[in-house]
Amino acid sequence: MKIGLLAIVFLASLIIGFLNLENKKKSDVLKKKMQDRINITKRINAINQSTYNKHKISKLLITLLEEFQLHNDVQPVLTETELVKIEKQLDLTLPLSYKLFLKYFGYGGNWIYANSIGSIRDRSFLSDYRNELDEKIELDNKKIKVDSLLCLMPEDSNGGAWCWLTTEDTKDGEWPLAYYSLSNKKLNYKVQNFTEWLQILINSKGEVIRELDFDDELGSG
User: Fold this and answer.
1) What top-level branch of life does the organism fall under (predicted)?
2) How many of the other CB atoms lie within 10 Å of CB of 26?
3) Which residues contact 142 (CB under 8 A, 6 or more apart)?
4) For residue 116, how far is the Cα from the chain centroid?
5) pTM for the whole thing?
6) What pLDDT, on the 0 to 100 scale, is given for residue 165?
7) CATH number of the domain located at residue range(s) 50-212 in this protein
8) pLDDT in tens, 62-104
9) How many CA atoms within 13 Å lie on the side-chain side of 132?
10) What is d(CA 134, CA 186) in angstroms, rounded to the nearest whole number?
11) How far apart are CA 157 and CA 151, in angstroms?
12) CB count, 10 Å around CB of 193?
C-alpha cells in the first residue's frame, strides 16, 4: 500500500513539474513576444521621428516592422558608428535606402517574408562564392566586373543572388541591383534601387526573382 502511495505521489510530482515547465515556456514565449512588440514600436517611432520620415523607403520599413511576425531570424539593427565602420571596410558609400533598412529594421534575416537578405557584416561579393566566373559578367550587353558586385544575399533557394551594381554612377547614390542566375551565368532583371526591390518583396511576400521571372525563363519556379 505504501509503495502504491509513493508511486502516486511521485507520478503526481512529475506531472506538476511538467505542467510548471510548460507554463514557464509559455510565459517566456509571451514575454518575448511582448518585448518584440515593444522593440518594433520603438523602431517605428524612431522612423517617424527621424529626418527621413518622408523618404519613400520609410513607409516600406514600417510595413516590414508591422508584419514582423512573418519574418524569421531578423538580425539586430546597426548603429551609425557600425555603418561608418562597414563603409570604411568596404571602401564604399552604401545607398541611403539600404542604410535606413540596416538602421531601423535589421542587418539581415534568413526569412524576410520568403526571401533571404544576407548580413552586410559578411560583406560578400559575387566573386567570393562564385570563383568559377570570369573576371566580367554580362548585363544588358555590357560587361560588369564580378568583384564589384556586392551581394544582397550570398545565395537564394535557386542558387542565384541579387547583387548591387556598385560601380554604376547615379545622381542620388542609389545603386541598382541585378539578379545573378545559375541558369544563364548572367545578371538579369535589373531594378533601379533597393527601394524598388523592397517594394516588390512587400507586394509579393515571396522571392523577388520569382515575381519578376513570371515566365520562368530562369527556372526559378
Assistant:
1) Bacteria
2) 10
3) none
4) 5
5) 0.84
6) 97
7) 3.40.1580.10
8) 999 999 999 999 999 999 999 999 999 999 999 999 999 999 9
9) 3
10) 11
11) 15
12) 22
